[in-house]
Each structure stands twice: as C-alpha cells, then as structure tokens.
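If it is no trouble, might I ask you for a protein's amino acid sequence along with its backbone structure tokens?
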Amino acid sequence: MRRSRRIPRQPRGQRRVAGLLDSAEAVIAETGYDGATMSAIARRAGASIGSLYQFFPNKQVLAQALRVRYSKEYDDLCARLTPEAKSRNLNAFVAHLIDLTVSFVETHPAFLALVDAPCSTRIPEAIRNVLRGRFAAFFLAAGPRMSKIKAEHLATMTLHMLRALAQIYAEAPARDRAHFVREFKVLFCAYLGLRLGRISR
C-alpha cells in the first residue's frame, strides 16, 4: 500500500523539500529513474536517509513530486502564451509552443529520464486538468465561437501530442532531434489547421 508523503508547512521545511527534489533531479538525470536510489539522493542532498523518507516514503512518491514541480513550472510558462493565441497566426503559435516545450525539456535535466518511469509516478489528475484547461483556453481565445467541448477535446489531443514529442525526443539520437521537432511542427499545424477550419499563412 502506497504511503502518503509529509507536506511541510513552514518555509524551512519547504526549502528542505526543495533541496531534496533538486538532488533527486540531479541523480535521476545522471542515472535514469531505475538507476536512482534513495540513498544516492540523500547523499547528494547531504541529508540522512531518514530525513528523506520523512518527506518521501519511496522513490515513486519522490519522482511524482518532481513531476508535479515540472508540471507547475511548465504551466507557468504556457500561461504566457494565452494572450498570444488571438494575435499569432497558427504556424507561429505552434512553433512557439513546441519550441517552448523543447526548451523546457532541455533545461530540466530529469524530464527525459522520467518519460518511462512507472505509471505510479504520474501527476494527479487534478494537476493534469489544470494544464488541459490551459490549452483549452488557448483554443477558445483563438476561436471565440468554438464550443467548450471542442476546445477541451483539442486540449486533450495537444497534451498527448506533446507527450509523444517528448517520447520521441527521449529516444532519438541527439543528431536527429531537431528533425523530429520540425516534423512535429508540420504535424501539429496540419492537425490544428483542419480542426480549427483554417490554416494560417
């Protein structure tokens, strides 16, 4: 049975948890999810293993917390795109979203290492819904007459397409990654152009 983690309320405890997550990020980026151990993470943080287990009872809970951090940071970046959904043409908007996503992956060392982590480390549904709602807002801004249901369907497809991009990016040799990014831009523009009933020039 999965144990729940302790959530610190005081700033000192929050800083301590942030440091543990920083160490987990570094170790997972270096060794992969399977190779990372709680002992190695505690050593990297300069903390006792007991202190680590106090906040994260196992590696799955720790990896999920890191994924939640990533999701919130990514959502903060995506929030800046909402005002641009009205003014940018479709191709420029898609290019900006995918470039933002690739930049995020490149600057968050453990992101690719967590792509194949167990389902038990997935972020909670409520947090996934926040990001889904963010993307739905993009489409409603771009097409004010669009139904909310259609916008939500497009948002769900967008999340899955970006996840697929991350999967290919993780598996591809570094020399081929730029190629696949370009291909995804073509794919995404074609899909949204058809579903939105227009393709911007």
